[in-house]
Design brief:
There is one protein chain. This protein is an all-alpha fold. The protein has 2 helices and no strands. Helix content is 93%, strand content 0%. The model has no long low-confidence stretch (mean pLDDT 84). Component of the BLOC-1 complex, a complex that is required for normal biogenesis of lysosome-related organelles (LRO). This is Biogenesis of lysosome-related organelles complex 1 subunit 5. Keywords: Coiled coil.
């Protein structure tokens, strides 16, 4: 029996939907075969966990137990020995540092005294130089006064000599 015309578009829509549904099923199957690796990964994870727990688990426990024993032995025996050695060495080191500190202090005192002595010597030399300079300046002033006095006397003699010469010349000029 032929299909009525008004049902043909509905039927064609159903066929198109059916084809789309089949295509989606094919795409889902292709995806699960090519891209969905969850089952393989879950198997690998289970294998890894099993290997780790069985083989490494006991080894890790032994290592941790050995480490714990080593720590206890260190705390009980080695640490007190180290503390005692450290205290002995620290006492000796403190004594050496105090001796070095005393030596440095004495050296600084000597240097300070030496600087003070040098400063005193320098001050004495400066005072001596100033006294010598003042004496030299007084001597120079005295010499200058003597030279000025001699110059004044020489000028007076020359004036007298020239005035006598003028008088004698005046005698001859009057003729």
């Amino acid at each position: 029996m032929p299909m009525p015309r008004f049902l043909q578009p509905v039927l064609s829509d159903i066929k198109a939907q059916n084809l789309t549904f089949l295509a989606l099923l094919d795409v889902g199957e292709i995806y699960s075969r090519l891209l969905d690796h969850r089952p393989v990964i879950q198997g690998e994870i289970r294998y890894f966990v099993k290997e780790f727990e069985e083989k490494r688990g006991l080894r890790e426990l032994r290592v941790l137990e050995n480490l714990k024993n080593t720590i206890f032995e260190t705390n009980d025996h080695v640490l007190p020995k180290c503390e005692q050695a450290m205290h002995n060495n620290l006492n000796e080191t403190i004594k050496r540092l105090q001796a070095a500190n005393n030596m440095i202090r004495r050296l600084q005192e000597r240097e300070h005294e030496e600087r003070k002595l040098q400063a005193d010597k320098l001050m004495a030399r400066e005072e001596k130089r100033v006294a010598h300079w003042e004496e030299l300046m007084k001597e120079q002033q005295n010499k200058q006064a003597e030279v000025d006095e001699e110059h004044r006397k020489a000028m007076e003699r020359l004036k007298e000599q020239y005035s006598e010469m003028e008088k004698e010349l005046a005698k001859y000029v009057s003729f």
